[in-house]
Amino acid sequence: MAVRPADLRDDIGQILLSEEQIAAKVAELGARISADYAGRPVTLVSVLKGSLPFMADLMRAIDLPLRIDLMEVSSYGGNSTESSGLVRILKDLSASIEREDVLIVEDIIDTGLTLNYLVRYLRGKNPASLRICTLLDKPARRLVEIPVDYIGFEIPDQFVVGYGLDYGELYRNLRFVGVLKPEVYGAGGPEADAE
Question: How far apart are CA 76 and CA 84, in angstroms?
């Protein structure tokens, strides 16, 4: 990987979603989730690594008894900017979700292949309910239809980084979501981060 500039913002061609827009949307999603679950406990399952900033902010916006768990999955067989849909679980849940209301927290839904696998896997653990919340939805790249219960923003088919989303493990710490300049990632096309 080429040496990146000291200020990674120099690699951003356009800010797609500002820190303020993201904060407002997270608060809105948290209020909707709190109302929909009506005081019932909920287990948030974050898919590492990209969804960590979203998960941290979202859980503080939810006014319910909740617990969190983390999973790490790897899509392999593709290149660094594409998801193959072939999934390996690198870190499984640390506790049972049987008979619990579970909300999968994703950073981005792109092709839907990885999430489709994850939904089937988690349903096999017999939760009382299983819903999906994503900050970003990129429907132009969808290969598998997945019902998503909570969507923060629908975005165009562009290569985005920031607020957890990375390219080569960089840019996750940017407080906004930005479009990466094409010369940074080459002609590989739009990303599918973890998804």
Answer: 6
Q: What are phi and psi of 154, to 5 degrees?
A: -90, 130
How do residues 35-69 score in pLDDT, each as one tens digit?
Answer: 999 989 999 999 989 999 999 999 999 999 999 99
The separation between CA 123 and the C-alpha centre of its own chain, rounded to angstroms, equals 19
Order of strands, sheet of 177-180, starting from the edge strand that comes earlier in the sequence: 12-17, 177-180, 160-161
CATH class given for the domain over 20-155: alpha beta
* Pair 76, 70: CB distance under 8 Å: no
**Catalytic residue, candidates 11, 110, 137, 166:** 110
The domain ranges of the chain are 20-155
Is 110 catalytic? The answer is yes
